[in-house]
Task: structure prediction
Amino acid sequence: MMQLFRQERMWNKRELKSSYDVVIVGAGAHGLAAAYYLGKSHGIKKVALLEKNWLGYGASGRNTAILRSNYRTPEGIPFYDASLKLYENLSSELDWNLMFSRRGHLTLAHNDSGVTGLRVRAENNQVMGVDSRMVARAEIRHLAPTLNVSASARFPIQAGLYHPPGGIIRHDAVVWAFARACDRMGIEIHTYTEVTGMHVEGGKVRAVTTSRGEIACGAVLNATAGWATTISNMAGVPLQIVTHPLQACVTEPLKPFLDPVIVSATLHVYLSQTDKGELVIGAEIDPYQSYCMKGTLPTLEQMATYTLELFPQLHGVKVLRQWAGICDMTPDFAPIMGASEEVSNFYMDVGWGTYGFKASPISGKTLAETIATGKPPKLIEPFSPSRFREGRLVGE
Amino acid sequence: MNFLFDSEEVPIQAGDTVASALYRSGRRIFSRSFKYHRPRGLLCCSGKCPNCLVNVDGSPSVRSCVTPALDGMRVRHQNAWPSLENDALSIGQHFDFLMPAGWYYKVFTKPATWHRVEPHIRKAAGLGELFENPQGIPEYEHAWMHAETAVIGGGPAGIQSALDAAERGEQVVLIDDQTELGGHLRYRKQRGADPRERIDALAARANVTLLQRASCFGIYEGNLLGVLLGHPHAGAAERLIHLRAQRIIVATGAYETPLLFDNNDVVGVMLSSAVQRLIHLHSIVPGRRAVIVAHGSEGDEVGADLKQAGVEVVEILAPSEIIAVRGSGEVKGVKSRRGDFACDLVIVCGPRVPDAGLLSQAGAKLQWSDVPGAFVPVGLPLNVSAVGDVTGETPVAAAQHFPDSKRAFVCICVDATSRDLKQGIADGFEEIETLKRYTTATMGPCQGRMCQLNAIQVCSRLTSRSMDETGTTTSRPPNPGVTLGALAGAKHHPIRRTPMHHAHAELGAVWLDMGEWKRPRYYQVAGAGGEAESVAAEYRAVRERAGLIDVGTLGKLIVRGKDAARLLDKVYTSRFSDLRQGRVRYAVMCDDTGVILDDGTVSRLADDRFFVTTTTGNLDFVHQWFDWWLVASGWDVSVTNVTGGLASVNLAGPKARDVLRKLTDLDLDPKAFPYMACREAQTFGVPAILMRIGFVGETGWEIHYPAEHGEEVWNAILVAGAEFGILPFGVEAQRLLRLEKRHVIVGVDTDALTNPFEADMAWVVKLDKEDFIGKAALARAASGGGVREKLVGFVMEGGVPEDGAPVVIGGIPVGRVTSSRYSPHRKAGIGLAFVPPELAAEGAPVRVRVRGQLRTAIVTMQPFYDAEGARLR
Ligand SMILES: Cc1cc2nc3c(=O)[nH]c(=O)nc-3n(C[C@H](O)[C@H](O)[C@H](O)COP(=O)(O)OP(=O)(O)OC[C@H]3O[C@@H](n4cnc5c(N)ncnc54)[C@H](O)[C@@H]3O)c2cc1C
Ligand code: FES
Result:
């Protein structure tokens, strides 16, 4: 209880120095996690995080904060599972309640191919030791009594994939807590510092130029998600990434109504109820490429339509805000992690698409190891930047 | 006329809102606050604060002050138990020192503790509840409108702008959220001349459309306005209008916001504009004794109104003079530097904030200006302009006073006080965007309207930065909030039915959803067993006699023109320029990375005319894909979607020829009409395209004919086949039949990364063609590059895996079953599965997980049924 009355700043403003061992571009959850593990696990603390806006401006401050590890591929499952395990303990480790709420994660299928898709995941999860199983309509009704499981719905629910360890987290808290831990170690967070160019010589980045001057660096980590290609271009590193907006919205707070996170792949909508009582609703990505972070009316209408298909009784509930973030989409729906092939000290932690928040602790940890030791851990080898050239797509 | 509030009958007078009727009947507490459950009463009376939220006819958090009271309404209080007057959870306010901003982040850092506490926090949070409305779910509508000029706001500025534009001859739409036009002149009588005449002039113009009780909740890209109209007619609750305007004039005015002092949220503390509305719009005597808090002479206007209404004005205090409001439930008096005053109303003349959210959504910047003391819109985009108080040209109240008080509520929605903000800033959240997220101030149901200015001012002072440096938070639509019902509109998921739908229903069809389509999964024959028996009977009919299936959901395109073959050569992997007239060829379409997008058949009906089928789900995509590649080609090709115009069936089985012979004069002899041929001919007197193809592995014809003859021909075939024992069959039997034949279904046996080499369909890729989409990637795949896995057949004795079961090696899922069934022909489980390329060899054993157990299956690259294809010929 005494924590309540302690007075301490989460992070501090510091002087921008002329050189750092590692410069991390982008202070979202990923950049911050990498910095944290560089300092904590490898003693590398001459690190600067450069953020062009406020802390959490990017997708880390805009996502729907769903955590889960019921992925599909043998590459993805252990990776996301390792992340979930780190998240479990992160509140105590960072001494900050991240409000990780394990309310279970329920994915719905409304047609036969949807059911098969879920079964692939359930089976693969079970083979690899992740708690995940198929549930029939009766059990779905029990898990989410307010859900419309009626057989006469327009798109009747056929079956579900239930993943008890999944849940939601307070995304801002993750960003803040990592930032505080970095600050404690002397790692510097520079907000309103935009990277505008890179000085590459002899296959290495020697310095980055920023809106506040040039900074020499031993290594650079690109952790800019939706902006990933703009930073890679500065280093002359091509990326198999396109950026699409992804939209979400939130309703007024309601009394507890829904426990598990609900996802419907067929209806392209997912939703959860926060501890404050709001329903957070997410859409599928906008069909066009853009860096625009403004919501659109048709997408909002689509989210509403599909939400009411699942929960017709919510018709009178008001949406209070809609917004968009931008997502770095790869062709195989898997991230790109590791040193670039072209510029040896230019590292990438990108390609997080619509699903990267849940991965921030593990990707931070593994990239910190990659940067510190020069060798990627086994867990992230399948996600190396060279896989596109080598035709080793992951297929998530 | 009356409505029910909880269990109390509340009489209604003409022009009443739910709130005005309740207030008149003596109600003062309207809600309980979010965090501390403090009693709250009417504050703004204009739909801009969180204080009057009630449940109306089952819908939560409805603003009673702007909701017209209707006879028979069912209104309930929310977020208080057992009642608004006595709320058990209100004891929380006495522990507020334990709950400063961000307290839950700092206290519950141990996961175990958090898991215990969270459910209780969760239970206490939230505002509204859902109740079933006895009238059922109301109707919501969508509408589309265009305007040359859209004016938002029906106050004096908006009225004048609309009149001006109308006089210029423009088509004008005026949007106003009140029941009557006039804006603040309706209740601030001293502020200007009665606008009645101008309103009448406006209403009389044919080129003006008035949308009243309609709020514009967002300006989207391309001057698209989202407008919500309440109760457009008796049959609908709301109508959402998509209004596209050439020019937008924003005349949304300014709204009053609270002042900060201790207990500034107590019931009876009201904005001056709110009390003016009660007096002038609803003829309500709001109280007996009022203290006014105002700068300089700003209180005189409301003072006069109060007196006129018969309320005694006890004192007018400056914001710096008021120390606190006394009273825990309702106002009892005021403690001030000039002494204590007893009263039952505290009327606040707060800063008036330009209502510029829409302008900011449209792209304007909000810049602080000391003179009006407001953020004013600058840098308006082309075709968007602002008039009236929203421009910030009229001076608003002078600077706020900032007490460091734990009960001076900045954000009444979430009970964030100025001390909470101070705490947040001390914790390091100095940016307004992070401060907002940390304290959640401005993020409640009022969407920041009541608190944004105060929050920014507190932040600016405490961080010693200018207002502009502090900045505003982003304005996001929809504001005001919009119901999910209105956003969704009328329930609008069309159901697509084939022309024979009702014939299937009569035959006992059990339906299957396939996208928007309904298809018979199988036919439940009266008296027979369940699905398994029905499917088995249908299967036997096709293998032994004849079967008929409706394949009308297949996409159908006519591709014609001199360069038609050229287009098909480009978009499909095989060659069609050498396809002879009267012949059919299987077709696979890939994207530029070689991934299979779709498959179907291409029939050459004439030299320059092809009939193309696509999979059920991909028709629209394929059509667009054709058009996409045609756009800049300059080729002479036209593509027509004929799906809805044709009924389609597949007649298959050893007796199919005998059945068809009864219906057509066409020579059906295998020599005259061989496998993979097509003909156009009359069938049962109807023009038809007949194709001899064999998805299910038997002699068969796919027949396409005009949709209006759908049932007629379908029934004729069944009648003709009766003597041979024909049965209609559904999708489930078809899936089994095609699986025995090892035919692949794109999207089922392939996924978002599968190329034809992985799908074991190398034969469809003609790399010697000049160029086609995906050629480079497929050339690489042909030499083994990028082949991650291979689709193989398998046989499993004594078991049938489920679709989706994994192929496992060493505890790792290395592949998966895409389709699997029990094969009556092989008397074993059969299926298709993706396996690593090295296992794709005849006879290789693989381990498949079947309901938790690993079992062995044997790989085969051959069809399970009629490997030589003798039955098709
Ligand atoms: C609406 C939405 C919902 C989502 N839902 C989920 C979900 O439920 N679960 C999940 O796991 N994932 C989800 N995601 C994805 C997830 O949010 C992201 O993958 C993840 O947050 C990426 O984190 P990041 O730290 O890599 O990037 P970001 O948080 O985007 O941070 C990148 C930062 O780089 C900064 N930057 C960019 N260019 C420069 C420059 N030139 N100089 C300096 N700084 C720069 C940006 O300002 C930004 O702050 C969602 C995304 C969105 C948009
Ligand atoms: S009193 Fe109704 S919204 Fe303010």
Notes: Chain B touches chain A through 101 residues (CB under 8 Å). Residues A 25-31, 50-53, 57-60, 62-66, 194-195, 223-227, 231, 246, 248, 282, 325, 327, 352, 354-358 surround flavin-adenine dinucleotide (ligand 1) (CB under 6 Å). Chain B has a mean pLDDT of 94.
